[in-house]
Amino acid sequence: MNIPYRPLALGLVALAFSAIVLQRAQAGGDDYFPPVVDPLVKEECGSCHMAFAPSMLPASSWKRMMGNLKDHFGDDASLDADTAARITSYLVTNAADTGGKRYSSKLLRGIAPNSAPQRITELPKWVSEHRKVPAWEWKHKDVRTKANCVACHADAERGFYED
Amino acid sequence: MHRKLAVPLGIVAMILSTSLFAGPREDLLAQYATAARTETPTFSGFSAARGKTLHTQKFSGGKPDTPACTACHGENPRGAGRTLTGKDIEAVAVSVTPKRYTDPAKVEKWFKRNCREVLGRACTVQEKGDWITYMASQ
């Protein structure tokens, strides 16, 4: 019998490849953080900066942040109570230690359970992932701030942060 | 048949066009005008020229990194702006971004935040009306 090894092998390789990609997209890999899908959250949290993925901070962080929008990293980001409550609920539901857990296990390493960190860019995992980025790159006119993920991670808005 | 339809269609078109002329932005400006009259009895209307000055003027009461509206919105009202965190801001000119100043809650939200950041105080109703009048003309 004549078994078509070559096409079979190629097919298997293709299958394995797509399985890996799919698995990374679904289970997250280390570089996937599902983007905000709620239109209200997208609008309110995404006007001044990228709407950061809720799975990048634990629920305690989001609660603390949403409780002090008047001084949001030095800026006034205040909202009416109803809008703020709806956003808080979305963030808390999808946070790194709740609904977004499977995407963020590594990101939460080294964080005390109730320390409620506020800056994603101060998480130990974030710092170690970005240790090779030179100072001049952060100061580049197209970057300017560490909150500007998209400047380097072209697919950040869709949740992908590899490279 | 066609002739019968023409009259109701004409009426519908007329209603649509009036509602276009007195849209939510005009309603908001009218509200601001009423409030301005209460604020200052000498109020004599909004001015695009004053709005233009407001747009480019440098203030010292706000934050050092946002001394003027143009710090984020750019010098040209018809061009896109950019936040300090690198996000694009749609042009403030109505001709470029027609939906601008049509949602009163949104307008108030941003005046509240931005006036505090740039001017170091809340904007007066006069200033808000001048701004929108200028941007509606751009």
Question: What descriptors fit this protein?
Answer:
heterodimer, A: 163 residues, mainly alpha, 7 helices, 0% strand, globular, B: 138 residues, Cytochrome Bc1 Complex, Chain D, domain 2, 2 strands, 55% helix, 3% strand
Q: Mind explaining what this structure looks like?
A:
The complex is a heterodimer of chains A (163) and B (138). By secondary structure, chain A is mainly α. Chain A has one domain (30-158). Helices cover 40% and strands 0% of the residues of chain A. In chain A, helix 3 (59-66) packs antiparallel against helix 4. Chain A starts with a helix and ends in a 24-residue tail after the last helix. The mean pLDDT of chain A is 88. With 138 residues, chain B is mostly helical. Chain B has one domain (23-136): Cytochrome c-like domain (Cytochrome Bc1 Complex, Chain D, domain 2, Orthogonal Bundle). Helix content of chain B is 55%, strand content 3%. Chain B is built from 6 helices and 2 strands; from the N terminus they run H-H-H-H-E-E-H-H. The model of chain B has no long low-confidence stretch (mean pLDDT 89).
How would you summarize this macromolecular structure in one to three sentences?
The complex is a heterodimer of chains A (163) and B (138). Chain A has 163 residues and is mainly α.
CATH class term of chain B: Mainly Alpha
Number of helices of chain A: 7
Q: Which descriptor suits the 3D outline of chain A?
A: globular
Return Rg of chain B in Å.
18 Å
Instruction: Summarize the main sheet of chain B.
Output: 2 strands, antiparallel
- Bin the strand percentage of chain B: under 5%
**Helix percent band of chain B:** 55-70%
Termini of chain A, distance in Å?
47 Å
SSE pattern of chain B: HHHHEEHH
Which stretches of chain B are low in confidence, meaning pLDDT under 50 for 5 or more residues running? none
Major interchain interface with per-chain residue totals: A-B, 20 and 12 residues
How far is it from the N-terminal to the C-terminal residue of chain B, by CA?
Answer: 44 Å
Strand content of chain A: under 5%
